[in-house]
Amino acid sequence: MIFTVVFAATALFLPLQNAFAADVTNSILSSRYQVAVCDWMILKRQKLGAFQLAKDIGADGVEVDMGSLGQRATFASSLTNAANREQFLAKARELNLGISSIAMSGFYAQSFAERTNVLRLVQDCVDTMQAMNVKIAFLPLGVNSDLLKHPELRAQVVERLKLVGALAEKAGVIIGVETELDASEQIKLLDEVGSPAIKIYYNLASAIEHQRDYVKELRLLGKDRVCQIHCSNTDGFWLQNDPQVNAPNLKAALDEINWSGWLVIERSRDTNDVHNVKKNYGANAAYLKSVFQKP
Predict the structure, then answer these.
(1) Which of 44, 96, 97, 103 would be a feasible disulfide site paired with 65, CB 3.0-4.6 Å?
(2) Residue 172 above 90 pLDDT?
(3) Does 3 map to a domain?
(4) Domain assignment of residue 172, yes or no
(5) Is residue 213 left, alpha or beta, with left meaning phi > 0 and alpha meaning psi from -120 to 50?
């Protein structure tokens, strides 16, 4: 499928703001592994309060979403406003928290393969990343572009990822793609796209759902193909109580391939008390830090 999108990239750069953002990012990177939470999963999507809540939870940072999408021309994002961005960066710096990534969670429900304005949407995300000095974006292929269920969309997905990769390369950022494919197929996908700016955003829950060994998969993918990890399972148990999750083995595999970066908690809530944000995410953050940040 060939498509043309015409858009004007907005210039969001503010030099002082970028220097400020760099201070935020660098101040929390003393550990090889950092733990973050998704703002939309802690019920604070694009809200300044996500940072204080993340601090209360015990996380090192926040994965900030671009906002809802639906059939809008672009994401419902307040971060296109320089004053709002500055508030977010100031709060992160005040609390010594990082911004792990900018998420395009709207693609969970919208089709990356078939939507006509994909480049505009990704460009808006990339502009925000540059303005906030965030190096990684989260791009889920979601339900409608799931290549396991819709292999017929593979050529379109690859074509679009090549174009997205070109945007990201020019901006000096990474787009992390979450797919339902196994590790060997993810490698093939990256090879077909052929862009150093397109990497895998690995999802532990997806591997578990499809009864794949995430330790073997991460070893196969290797350090350079994985930009970030959603380090949680579906809801049911806290990570420390989940019989399907072995965090020490996961750490051993990541140590072995010399990987470092953000482990982002998406779910793994106790279904007996699923709405207690502080309790669920606090327990998961404390456990991951006890495993991945122990002396």
Answers:
(1) 103
(2) yes
(3) no
(4) yes
(5) beta
